Structure formats: C-alpha cells, structure tokens
C-alpha cells in the first residue's frame, strides 16, 4: 500500500519559519494537499495542488513540491498556527488515496 | 456557505452494521464528488471512500473495501456510508467532505462511531 511520510513533530518560535515535509514515491506525478487540524476541530484545507492557497487562508501559508517531497511552509508562524498538519495525495494509479501520518506543530 | 452535517453515529457491537448520513446544503450537491474520512481517537486522519457527483464511480480505502458502501441521493442532498461487519478498529469520528480540486475541501464536524461489545 502507498504511504506518505511526515515528521511527527516540528517546533518553532513565534515569527520563525516552520517547514513541514511530506515524502512519497508518487509525488513527482501527483499533487500534494495540506490540512490543518486544531484540537477538537475538523480539518481545514490550507494548500491544494502543491502550492495553491484557498480563499481565506493567510498568505504566510505556502506549499511547494520537488521530486518525491512536498513541503508546507509557514512564514512567520504565529501561536494560533499551532496544530496538527496532514498531507494528502494518491499513488501513481490514483486508486490509493492516503493521508500522511501528521505533524504536530508547536509554536512557542 | 457550505454546510455538512453528519448523523447516525453511536455505539454498536462488533459484527453489526450502521449507516451514517451527511446532509449537505449551501452548494449544488449533485455537482460535486463527496468523501468520507475518519479519525480514530488520538490518531491521524484516514481516508475512507469517495463517490463521484452522479454516483457512477466509487473508490474505497483498503481497510474498508468489501465492508463499507458509499452512496448518495441527489434528490435529498444526502451522502451515506453503509458500514457492515464492523470491527473494534473502525471506532472513529467519521467526517464527510465536499470534493474540491480532487481532495476533501469543506468538512462537516463529524459523528462518532464506537464499536464495542
């Protein structure tokens, strides 16, 4: 089965840049999507198709993808960005849809 | 605005069945694919299933294939998840989500399913 691999945790101080990675063999051919989930809430899509930002998502959130790795970057992370972040994509056939294991971002 | 409201969760014994519903409003339901995603207590997100806008195409995660069935009634703006042969490991919050750009875009608040004897 297909897997997306994320680091379990990332920690930054307020105002610093946070980078969360997601690796998967099919990422050179398939888009990555990123979700933010705050404690007790439903997930929110923050990046789609590798680098596009939905309306209402702050500009400090950006995404990129190169080779087998996609990256979510939060420039000038704020305390309210503290959450779990998940990447999402499919295998090369498009038939196996998966989330990464999630990364807990701590901002303090 | 998009509103998705899940219902039908509860406590069920292993081996039994349960049907979840997701009532949609605020968008043209019949024009969008829909997803189910679940999250076990304290764990990460797990994609469960997707159905195309007209119900003609469906895809399932490996862990539920053959046991769960996703369906929709466009006349009622409602998405369903029929869950058979439930296992303890199916215990989770189940979210429905509207497909946006080939991914779960807008999400409901979820309904809790607990499988326990």
Structure description:
The complex is a heterodimer of chains A (108) and B (117). Chain A is globular, with a radius of gyration of 13 Å. With 108 residues, chain A is an all-beta fold. In chain A, the strands form 2 sheets. In chain A, strands 1, 3, 4, 7, 8 and 9 form a 6-stranded mixed sheet that branches. A 3-stranded antiparallel sheet of chain A has the order 2-6-5, with no helix packed on it. In chain A, 38% of the residues are buried. Chain A is built from no helices and 9 strands. Chain B has 117 residues and is mainly beta. Chain B has strands at residues 3-7, 10-12, 18-25, 34-39, 45-51, 58-60, 68-73, 78-83, 92-100, 103-107, 111-115. The model of chain B has no long low-confidence stretch (mean pLDDT 97). The chains are: A mainly beta (108), B mainly beta (117). At the A-B interface, strand 3, strand 7 and strand 8 of A face strand 5 and strand 10 of B.
What is the number of strand segments of chain A? 9
What are the segments of chain B in which pLDDT stays under 50 over at least 5 consecutive residues?
A: none
DSSP helical segment count of chain B: 0
Mean pLDDT of chain A: 97
Got a strand count of chain B? 11
Number of helices of chain A: 0
Provide the structure class of chain B.
mainly beta
Q: Which descriptor suits the 3D outline of chain A? A: globular
* Largest sheet features of chain A: 6 strands, mixed
Order of helices and strands of chain B: EEEEEEEEEEE
SSE-based structural type of chain A: mainly beta
Greatest contact between two chains = A-B, 24 and 20 residues
Oligomeric state of the chains present here: heterodimer
Order of helices and strands of chain A: EEEEEEEEE
Q: Taking Cα atoms only, what radius of gyration of chain A do you get, to the nearest Å?
A: 13 Å
The major β-sheet of chain B equals:
7 strands, mixed
């Amino acid at each position: 089965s297909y897997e997306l691999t994320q680091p379990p945790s990332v920690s930054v101080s307020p105002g610093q840049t946070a980078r969360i990675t997601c690796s998967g063999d099919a990422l050179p051919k398939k888009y990555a999507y990123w979700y933010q989930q705050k404690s007790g809430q439903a997930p929110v899509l923050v990046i789609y198709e590798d680098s596009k930002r939905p309306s209402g998502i702050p500009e400090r959130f950006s995404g990129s993808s190169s080779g087998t790795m996609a990256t979510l970057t939060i420039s000038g992370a704020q305390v309210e960005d503290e959450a779990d972040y998940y990447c999402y994509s499919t295998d090369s056939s498009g038939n196996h849809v998966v989330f990464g294991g999630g990364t807990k971002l701590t901002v303090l | 605005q998009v509103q998705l409201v899940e219902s039908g969760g509860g406590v069920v014994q292993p081996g039994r069945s349960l049907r979840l519903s997701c009532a949609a409003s605020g968008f043209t339901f019949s024009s969008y694919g829909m997803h189910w995603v679940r999250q076990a207590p304290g764990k990460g997100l797990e994609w469960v299933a997707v159905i195309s806008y007209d119900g003609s195409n469906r895809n399932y995660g490996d862990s539920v294939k053959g046991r769960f069935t996703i369906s929709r009634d466009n006349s009622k703006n409602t998405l369903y998840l029929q869950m058979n042969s439930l296992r303890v490991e199916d215990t989770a919050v189940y979210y429905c989500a509207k497909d946006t750009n080939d991914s779960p875009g807008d999400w409901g608040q979820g309904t809790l399913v607990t499988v326990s004897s």
